[in-house]
Amino acid sequence: MKLNSLDRTLLLFTALLASYQVSEGIEGLATLPVTAYTIGFGILLIAALLIFILGFEVLDLPIVFILSTIIPLSLSLGLVWNHLASFRTAYLIFTIIGFLAVTFTRAIPMTNKMPVIILALTHGISGLTIFLLPIFLAIQGDMKLPFAFVGIGGGLIGIGGLLLSFLKMGKPILSRERIMRLFPLLLLLTTACFVAGFVWG
Amino acid sequence: MPFIGKLRHYWSLTKPSQSGLLLATGLAGYMSARATSITSSTILQLSASLFLAIAGSTILNMWWDRDIDAKMGRTQKRATSKGLVAGSEVLLVGLLVSVIGVGWALAMDVLYGIVVFAGLFFDVVIYSMWLKRRTAWSILWGGISGAMPILAGRTLGLGAIDWIGIMLALGILLWIPTHTLTFSMKFAKDYADAGVPNFPSTYGLGVTRAAIAISSVLAAVAMVTAGYGIGMHDGYMRLLGVLSAGLFMLAGAIAFKPTEMINFGLFKYASVYMLASMILVVLEVI
Fold it and tell me: Which residue of chain A comes nearest to B276, CA vs CA?
């Protein structure tokens, strides 16, 4: 399925927003969250550029599983580091183990359900963290209300990740064509919510 | 032939998009120097002199290569290959445009003019006339000439050649093989038909892919080093680092798991990377 001009426009804006977030949106934070956010938004940027250049076929590459895991892991690590000081070390360990486990179970062919369980656990915990933590912080008044946009972005990227993961496992929730048609919009909305949340929150 | 038609042929002989991209690197090089007196007049004169020198050398290349261009499918339709413009006239126009471009550059600043002339000399004499039909390594000299505009721009802004200028030039020099070698893989038959030696025919596809991967990585290293030298702020350095990581990833893929899609991806991504780097250099100064 080929990209149309609307897809390309959406991807271009996604790349620009992610570029802004990497270069300007995370200034003044500590080294680890800056690194974590740079990795998360950096992968969003590269993903948007590569889909723009190569089309949707790039989503069929095996490395997509690993890269799509790094995005929620790194963004949630940044959030936890900034807002849940007592969980910093534990979450950092979870992030490292989660990443290594997903990479390991994808690199070595396995016939049991281990790869799916690892992927679901890692995505589930990190995805829920990005979705719930900013909303909780905004409701509690610890952050300004627009910070909840980060949570909405987390929810959207979670939906994208689920759609892609089930598609790749051969049990699609929506048809491949519909997922691909939605994907550029989902990517832009996700990035826009993240940027809005960080800028105004 | 009507004047407008002829003008259109000559305009196509300047390879406007390629010349435009090289001109953009020259402007970025100038801006990177953070010259205290950036005026619209200097920018206009830099643009005009550099564009004329680049266009002149491109026209001269077309004139010299018109026989082999006629044998290659990719270049058969050029006005020089099809005989739509007379060879002697193309030579005259190429020389005239080049002399005006280099002369203007020399009048602006002698060192700037020398660098611009060096680019033209490497491109036309060393690359096209001397080495292109003899060795696959001619692309190195083509690369050096392609790196001259950014060095020229910085030299004009700074009044001297410094290590940052050399790094910026290295970034372009090492980026060019990503383009030319991918091209030579895609159009291998064309080059064979014309008897032009290239990396795939001389060293094989594996070595060519390794050369593309290594040069891409080194190009990114040179650009990041230059960014550091220019004093880019942390945010832009992070962005440059992310874009470089994308280049590393594709370079690794082309070296270890090459596919047609990855080849094309690296080819296109490298252009986006270089354009983004130039924009960051300019934004840093603005």
Answer: A19
